[in-house]
Amino acid sequence: MVDQLVVGFDLDMTLIDTAPGFRDVLAALGGELGVEFPIEEMTAKLGPPLDLLLEPYLAADAIPAAGDRFRALYPDHAIAGTPAFEGAHDAIAAVRRHAGRVVVVTGKYPANAQLHLDHLAFDVDHLEGWVWGVGKADALRREGASIYVGDHVHDVEGALAAGALSVSVLTGGCTREELEAAGTHVVLDSLAEFPAWLEGHLLDLRLAALDADLKQRGSVLVAYSGGADSALLLAAAVRALGADNVAAATGYSHSLPQAERDPARDFAQSLGVEVLTPETHEMEREGYRANAGDRCYFCKAELLDVLTPIAAARGLAHVATGTNADDVVAGFRPGIRAAAERDAITPLADAGLTKEQVRAASLRWGLPTWDKPAAACLSSRIAYGVEVTPHRLGRVERAEVAVRTALADHGPRNLRVRDLGERASVEIDATLLPLDAAVEADLLDAVRAAGFAEAAVDPRGFRSGSMNEAL
């Protein structure tokens, strides 16, 4: 599994525009000391420790006391008026979207740095203050930061010394040329560009990890449903191993909609891989028919029990599923447990690829499945505790075809007909609700004609996994 993302940020002139507050404090300090500091010139050089900035203008033995007084004046003169740079909060939020940690590593006096973080409500896990240049490396290494974002050449030095990727923004006093000469890896105009850069960077890293993982596997049989996840996995396997070392297997049973079969087979064949369509018999498993909360365990167990010997007979080293990184942390996923017990591998999850990244990678590679809506098996439409039977699966499939036909002019993206016993609940995209009364009446007539005694449109709209709400 991939390590947790940890991103370090400098504070002054990276997250916050310190210049106005610095000017005010410096003016107050100069007034007390009777020294006329060149405030604009000093402010243009923000980044180095305060003692170094004061050094040209004060006697050496006066600097420590002046520094202490500067820090004492700072809260009253510099906190309230110091703004966050455009994109600062969004940059931190971008790290959070990937379950990452945020650390601030700054040369600033820690207590005053914390005042800024609190005042601007920055969501930060750890603050390290009073460190400068290569001295930042110890904190970055200790916190496990793989990226450090700063505005100064000395921030670049700290990142490189820590073995972190250096990202520089042009909101401080250093030019692009100076930062590049210092060895920074990336230069952004501002933090407003950071979220998009981070998305692309992580996708590159995780696709590279996926490729490396698959190459060392040698050969794979992909448990292929035709959805976005397994389609990307299949394409990645062909890229890494060549079509001769990859096969796709789709289990055919009552729970796989007919409409899913041809497109899935056509895509796999377009990659040049052998497509296998063995029958699976999950309906013969009592736990599957009983349809308790662990139904997916029995379904996945049946699939892997069918595919594992097929892979062995064809000399394929592993059976791989399209489980992604979001699935692993989603909580209730009995199917993942069944696959793990049967030694199936999960390359997408192991590379840290989320569902959003699966779609982004698929779009990058030109795969037709990049925006394909989730299409769980038909059994997922049947309420827990209601027995799964071929009859119920058939009427759900007929009802969904009828609803899609009735809504053809509205172009629903997501659609489910939930079997609640003898009553059907129809879920469609919330953006299409409420439906015109005549359209809704025709739709519900079509659902009843498919075999349900009663039917209603769920006013909350489509929700993936809504059956789990009852668990």
TrEMBL record:
<dbReference type="Pfam" id="PF12710">
    <property type="entry name" value="HAD"/>
</dbReference>
<dbReference type="InterPro" id="IPR052188">
    <property type="entry name" value="Ni-pincer_cofactor_biosynth"/>
</dbReference>
<dbReference type="InterPro" id="IPR014729">
    <property type="entry name" value="Rossmann-like_a/b/a_fold"/>
</dbReference>
<dbReference type="InterPro" id="IPR023198">
    <property type="entry name" value="PGP-like_dom2"/>
</dbReference>
<dbReference type="InterPro" id="IPR005232">
    <property type="entry name" value="LarE"/>
</dbReference>
<protein>
    <recommendedName>
        <fullName>Hydrolase</fullName>
    </recommendedName>
</protein>
<dbReference type="InterPro" id="IPR023214">
    <property type="entry name" value="HAD_sf"/>
</dbReference>
<dbReference type="InterPro" id="IPR036412">
    <property type="entry name" value="HAD-like_sf"/>
</dbReference>
